[in-house]
Amino acid sequence: xxxxxxxxxxxxxxxxxxxxxxxxxxxxxxxxxxxxxxxxxxxxxxxxxxxxxxxxxxxxxxxxxxxxxxxxxxxxxxxxxxxxxxxxxxxxxxxxxxxxxxxxxxxxxxxxxxxxxxxxxxxxxxxxxxxxxxxxxxxxxxxxxxxxxxxxxxxxxxxxxxxxxxxxxxxxxxxxxxxxxxxxxxxxxxxxxxxxxxxxxxxxxxxxxxxxxxxxxxxxxxxxxxxxxxxxxxxxxxxxxxxxxxxxxxxxxxxxxxxxxxxxxxxxxxxxxxxxxxxxxxxxxxxxxxxxxxxxxxxxxxxxxxxxxxxxxxxxxxxxxxxxxxxxxxxxxxxxxxxxxxxxxxxxxxxxxxxxxxxxxxxxxxxxxxxxxxxxxxxxxxxxxxxxxxxxxxxxxxxxxxxxxxxxxxxxxxxxxxxxxxxxxxxxxxxxxxxxxxxxxxxxxxxxxxxxxxxxxxxxxxxxxxxxxxxxxxxxxxxxxxxxxxxxxxxxxxxxxxxxxxxxxxxxxxxxxxxxxxxxxxxxxxxxxxxxxx
Amino acid sequence: xxxxxxxxxxxxxxxxxxxxxxxxxxxxxxxxxxxxxxxxxxxxxxxxxxxxxxxxxxxxxxxxxxxxxxxxxxxxxxxxxxxxxxxxxxxxxxxxxxxxxxxxxxxxxxxxxxxxxxxxxxxxxxxxxxxxxxxxxxxxxxxxxxxx
Lengths: 534, 148
Fold this sequence. Notes:
heterodimer, A: alpha/beta, FAD/NAD(P)-binding domain, 6-stranded antiparallel β-sheet, B: mainly alpha, 7 helices, 54% helix
């Protein structure tokens, strides 16, 4: 095994959180190295550059790593879960393939035990994160409309996306019902911003943005971090973290692009591999001192996996909608976000509205649902459906449950022979009630908009975008994996900065909060450099 | 069992027949059916990673039909098609998706739908701004987040 010169800080993973922490730590002038199992993206190869752009979503640009199966991907056994894991592996991580919807967790999300008597309070609060939310919004480049009465106050540096054709239809329906709605903050640039070109509405943003208008960390944080001296090595897949005789992390073993085993020593190791990749790595890092996996004296590594079950309902209106001619989401609602026990469940959900779908997606989805027939009537029905879809998705707060977990699959391995993650997950009764409530309210919204042919996806099967909770933070080493500033309780030079550290999930997309936490942990590290391991 | 990387002549025949059953040609909308030679050629040229599942689906279809699909009368073909879709699982869904994704990128079909014949990039699309006064009732209602 080749051994390299030691670095001060080794970051594993170049996605949302790894990029943010690398950029923040760069000002220390320490020798910082990041290893990522994927490579740099080539926007000229993104789906929207070709006529077959929609077909690619079902293959090499699927959100599922199991379907996509690029060399950079690792397989995930999610057979025992109604919600399948979706992610992206490469520089930028899953920010390359996300919708750019950009809510923050609410202040109440950090105090669920105190407020509602469930789960646990976080060891940090919303106010602590505010400066890092703001810094992150500037770095990622956020568009939106400040002043939402039911969301945390934000200051987007760019104006919101146009309402388009779909937005007013949704807005009128919500006004008819007297329910809250607001233009969503997004990381879609609505004007030229920090070297990024403005959005020109290429269509659905999820499978990467050829225009570069959607913020992914390969075009936001990484160029700045690299200019500041951070080193990023691609196509390097970390197998395990090694420890020394003092129980400290000594470095990592990884496979380079040629599959050659390498050892990279480091003074500090930071894991940024998401809520599935991080526990996988820790559980693969066994030793005599850490027989149950690294940083796992609590036994909680991999447990408390939270996904956000999505309850989606959609229908078709007479008026034309934005179809594939706009970013997929433009509005949110927090009408049902906070606990109201009269609804039959605790906690709540955000709503994100979908503007529409492209013709291939519409044909495939509608045929599967049985509303687009085979035969002579196909053409008439398709013309009624295509370009007329509106969607409502309740993104339900998933409470932590230890039986929802990531373990190592005894058989399945990645292309380097590293044991793959296995997911065991069930949707709780509380979440089911929440999803039913969301579907019922969604139906009311769609009916208020005049929609017909209403269909349901609940849960959205390939909806495991948000991978949270599997190395939770807390002050009690028996009940958490990392402390309140991201350092492992067990290994004092090991940090975790991704969604694994979430204590609860909130009812919104988590990337904004994940990155704010990564910046907060980096800031804590900088403040404690003299006694980081005490 | 079919080869993993290509369809047999019999499978191609059945693919053409079932594609026309899914989407027949229409004089009213001036569009070809999914059995159109150019659309069929697109399917065969771009099957790629879907080849194995599509071949499995066609094998399943052949078992149900007992003979080339084109040789059945229309009523029997419809019965077979219903059974195929109900029992074909992921393979049948993949076959149908392949037919649809190639059909709905054909120039003649897109033109009939009033869609432009181009990739989204680099031209993009223009989005109307919409009526922002719709937010006035939301602002008027106000409200506040739950604060711990």
